[in-house]
Amino acid sequence: MTNPTAIPETASPQVEFISLSHLNPSTELNPVPSRGIDLPYFKKYVRALEESGYDYTLLPYGSNSADSFVLASAVGQLTERLRPIVALRPNTTFPLVAAQKLATLDQLTEGRAVVHLISGGNDAEQARQGDYLPKDRRYARTSEFIDLLRRAWTETSPFSHEGEFYKFDEFGPGFAPYGSTIPISIGGQSDAAFGVGGAKADIFSFWGEPLADLRKEIDRVNGIAAAAGRTDRPRIWVTFRPIIARTDELAWRKAFDYAARIEQTFNAGPARAFLKGAPQNVGSQRALAFAAKSEVYDRALWTRTAAATGGLGASTALVGSPETVAAAILDYVDQGASLVSIRGYDTLADAVDYGRHVLPLVRQEIAHRAATGQRGALQDAHPGALAPGFDPATLAGAR
Fold this sequence. Notes:
The protein is 44% helix and 15% strand.
């Protein structure tokens, strides 16, 4: 007989939280045309993340967005503990220069820097900044890029290199990080992404997927890491867009309203015209396939928000009361996730609400497990969409 209090063997013993820093008040619910930084808002947002107990914040990158390195440096000076994650496309920065920039950030923040490498999932977006490599070669370039980052941080003598994508003579020693190295994250669902990330990344990033499907993907990453001779395994990062309210019923009513507004924003915006046909990246293809199969999975995973945006970016939701969403996050921790990114649709208000109502519940359960060696009662007490007779679809259109 299964022990209901047993901690799954796959469970991570720790969990850290990531959010995304927003530059101005514009949201998918209430878009405000802007290409700029609202500095008072940005400062307020970043400080709210620190005060709310997040561990990291992602500084995203796009061809028409603010520079992620400069933003990360600002985050580092506006906070004392929050770790900035620089989203970086290898085509935009020579690897030795990237190593120098990241090491500088790491020194300025006393060891808080992290880098998330984006190989590029859309040919048209890559071409906007002069990158015409096909996708499989982009991941090969990322692999070489990772090797050079690490050598630049650790070599104590000058070295030369001639590879498929980069060539230089007698570089170094480079500028060193604050500590021994800087964590490198990779995401993606293509075979090439798994190959590079499993073999070389410190962190492998996923969008929110049904639990059983994510477990298979984690096993795949770990198998590649083992085949590459690694004695460690990449940390698993999973991303959600939670929609919470006082009760599960109120949260689902809110979610259906949000999905309609998000779809309206998406259809009226430039992304709809830019994304012609099916998405090129496998992550978006998987998100749309899950949405086509079912809107609700497991305790709280909802795919209508992904369908509403054509699978663009991380867009699957967790819907429910704070207790149900915390329990759902723990379900993913039980599958092996140790980094959980949660960002809302009402960006600043949601970040504060998550910090006040969700993060403490998850951390309380992790502390209970560490102290007792057993699961607590939260997951059993809050089944969410798994509760007998509960059908979220009946709440569509309800107010």
